[in-house]
Fold this protein.
Amino acid sequence: QVQLVESGGGSVQPGGSLTLSCEVSGFSFDDFAIAWFRQVPGKELEGVAFISGSGSTTKHGDSVKGRFTISFDDYKTTVYLQLNSLKPEDTAVYYCAADHADLVRLGLAAYGLWGQGTQVTVSP
């Protein structure tokens, strides 16, 4: 079964850290780009971080650059998003998504496979 399953969300104080995981099953993401998006209720999905299947290309959104880092494990079964120096405005549901492409594409429409999301809440 082809699926993405996110985990690792939770509540944290400003300045804290979290590690989100996206477990990939049913396909090899050698031929896929994987991305993390986030959504605040009432707002559009925002691309947070992107990584190519080879790992040679990563991109991070301007609002998280220097604070968040995308990576994957050596077995290419899990994609991580390390969230550091969290701010209240980082509060959102975070989704991982897959795009069957060799290169990283930033457009939302390119991503056809999505996980169910994990909630991140940053508050004092």
